[in-house]
Amino acid sequence: MTYCVAMCLADGLVFASDSRTNAGVDHIATFKKLHVFHQEGERVLVLQSAGNLATTQSVISLLSARIRTQQEPNLMQVTSLYDAAMLIGKTLLEVIQRDSSNQQTCSNTNFNCNLLLGGQIAGETHRLFHIYPEGNFIEATRDTPYFQIGESKYGKPIIDRVLTIDTPLEQAMCCALISIDSTLRSNLSVGLPLDTLLYRSGSFSAGQHRITDSDPYFNRIRKAWSEGLLHTFQTLPTWTPAEREEE
C-alpha cells in the first residue's frame, strides 16, 4: 500500500509520499511514488501515485516517452494544468483498459491506481488535481485545499484540524510529515523513506528532498508531536461517572 498527500495553498504546493510497496509480508520493496516533469522557468508538474505499481510505471513511462519523442500532445506542450490532468487521465485509462483485457484469466487482479497532479504552467496559477482510475478528476479548492491517496484515514485528522488555505508552506510541510508519521505508526504497509517537494508559486523550481529514518528534523517533530499529544491527554479532566439518581 502507500500514502501520498498534496496540499494547494495560497503560497504554493506541498507534496509528501512514502515509498513502500508490498504484495505480502515476503514481498516488501521501495519504489518512488513522486515524479516530476520540469521545464525550467516554464512549468513544474508533480505526479504522485497510489495503487497498482505496474499501472503506475506504465503511465509514467508513456508520459515520459511522449515527451522524449515529441508526440503530440505531451506534458511539455499542454498550456494548462487542466489539460495536463486530461492527458494523464486518458493515459491512465488507456493503460488500465489495455492491462485488464485479460481480466477473464486474472479475475482477482486490480489494475486501478489513483494519481495526484499538482504544479504550475506559466500564464496561470498553481493548481492541484486528483485523477481517478476512470480518467476523470477533481480540483482542489479553497475549502478543500488538499488531497490524499492510499492509506489516508490515519493521517487525515491532523490535516483537518490545522490546515487552511493560508497556512505557510513550511508549516504545511510539517503538517504533511506528521500526517505521514501517524500513518507509519498505524499501518505497516506504509514506510520510509519519504519523498517531499515544496513548491513556491511562480518559482518554477522543483527541488526534492528525501527523508530517511535518520533525518534529524523528521525525528525531532515526530518525537515532539508524540510527547505533546501525551502531555495534552494527561492534562485532560478525569472522567467521573455521574451519580445515579435515587429512584
TrEMBL record:
<dbReference type="GO" id="GO:0051603">
    <property type="term" value="P:proteolysis involved in protein catabolic process"/>
</dbReference>
<dbReference type="Pfam" id="PF00227">
    <property type="entry name" value="Proteasome"/>
</dbReference>
<dbReference type="GO" id="GO:0005839">
    <property type="term" value="C:proteasome core complex"/>
</dbReference>
<protein>
    <recommendedName>
        <fullName>Proteasome-type protease</fullName>
    </recommendedName>
</protein>
<dbReference type="InterPro" id="IPR001353">
    <property type="entry name" value="Proteasome_sua/b"/>
</dbReference>
<dbReference type="InterPro" id="IPR016545">
    <property type="entry name" value="UCP009120_prtse"/>
</dbReference>
<dbReference type="InterPro" id="IPR029055">
    <property type="entry name" value="Ntn_hydrolases_N"/>
</dbReference>
